[in-house]
């Protein structure tokens, strides 16, 4: 489902539920003493609203930073892969050809096999790790004369670039697991949102229509924020998903 359609459905549902609750409270609730409670209810609303806003802001900023980090990390991983392949062009055969073929195969594996699994949270194949292990083994066994400083430096550069690929790959895989919002956080977010939206029903002095509009607006705004968190909790899926563009470009460079 389109992200805008899904978000609209969330908001419409929240608005309808908030309006219904506000109407029922004004229609069947007790009005006695409600205006006198405005000061106390206002203080409670301010405290709850401030705490809830702080929690939502913290979660959203963390998820936004995580998505930016994942995007930058994917480009660093792809660039290190290309750098390793280019540096390997100076190595003797068969290491030169094997590393280039393995690098291209690794990029293809990330784009076509790993990225779809990261989107849906499935188990990633071991092929990517195997390809990196084979590249490392090829570099280690490359026959480079000990007295040739230039070839030795090229071999060292390939090994260093592959080490960077290993590090960025692990960070990318960790992002799939670490960025999901836990059940406890969701409980706090949803529970706080419900309390925040229901508290205005304690206020008195406003007309019924005005009261319904206020509660519905709060429900809509809070639901939009929760929907944004839901969409951003997996940086490889949802409305702010990070695509495999870096590795698609790397495939073009490795041909």
UniProtKB/TrEMBL annotation:
Disulfide bond is among the record's keywords: no
Protein's UniProt keywords contain Transmembrane: yes
Superkingdom: Bacteria
One Pfam family of this chain: Bestrophin-like
Entries under InterPro entries matching the protein: DUF4239
Keyword entries, A-Z: Membrane, Transmembrane, Transmembrane helix
Transmembrane segments: 7-25, 45-64, 181-203, 209-230
The protein's name in its UniProt record: DUF4239 domain-containing protein
Record organism: Amycolatopsis tucumanensis
């Amino acid at each position: 489902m389109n992200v805008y359609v899904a978000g609209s459905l969330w908001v419409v549902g929240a608005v309808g539920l908030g309006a219904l609750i506000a109407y029922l409270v004004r229609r069947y609730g007790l009005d006695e003493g409600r205006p006198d409670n405005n000061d106390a209810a206002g203080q409670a609303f301010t405290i709850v609203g401030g705490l809830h806003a702080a929690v939502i802001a913290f979660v959203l900023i963390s998820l936004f930073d995580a998505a930016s980090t994942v995007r930058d990390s994917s480009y660093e991983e792809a660039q290190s892969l290309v750098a390793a392949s280019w540096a390997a062009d100076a190595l003797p055969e068969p290491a030169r050809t094997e590393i280039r073929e393995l690098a291209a195969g690794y990029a293809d594996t990330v784009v076509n096999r790993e990225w779809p699994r990261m989107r849906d949270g499935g188990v990633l194949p071991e092929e990517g790790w195997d390809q990196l292990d084979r590249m490392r083994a090829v570099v280690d066994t490359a026959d480079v004369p000990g007295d040739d400083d230039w070839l030795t430096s090229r071999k060292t550069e390939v090994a260093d670039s592959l080490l960077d690929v290993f590090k960025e790959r692990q960070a990318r895989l960790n992002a799939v697991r670490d960025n999901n919002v836990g059940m406890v956080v969701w409980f706090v977010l949803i529970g706080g949102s419900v309390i925040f939206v229901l508290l205005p029903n304690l206020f008195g002095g406003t007309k019924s229509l005005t009261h319904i509009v206020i509660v519905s607006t709060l429900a809509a705004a809070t639901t939009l924020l929760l929907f944004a968190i839901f969409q951003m909790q997996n940086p490889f899926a949802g409305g702010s998903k990070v695509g495999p563009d870096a590795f698609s470009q790397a495939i073009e460079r490795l041909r």
